[in-house]
Design a protein that fits this description.
single chain, alpha+beta, four-stranded antiparallel β-sheet, 8 strands, disordered N terminus
Amino acid sequence: MRRVRSATRAIAAAAGGVLVAAVVAGCAGYSANVTNRTTRTVYAAVFERSASGAMKLLATEAVGPDSDETVGPVSTPADSQAVLIVDVTPSPRQIRWIVLRQGTTRYEVTQINDMPAAPIQVRETD
């Protein structure tokens, strides 16, 4: 009886490992390294955008002037996208999202001019 229980536990553990592997295989991993070259704090957030367009917040970071932070890593289901939004307020006013590629992608945030309330721009870097 003891051997049967041990064998049952071993099979259950193996089946659980297969299930975890199957779930992980259906997900993709993303992160964004954001470098802030402005004079003010910016807020970077990664959302999951589903096929229906619904947005779900996955990770967020405040990035101070002349510093960098990594947002993520996060995972999304295969039928969803990971999108990055960067703005100067925690609640984005100008919703412009960047679809992330798998892995870590680097971005640089700059101001369009030196005015304190100047708009920001986000560009991918190497």
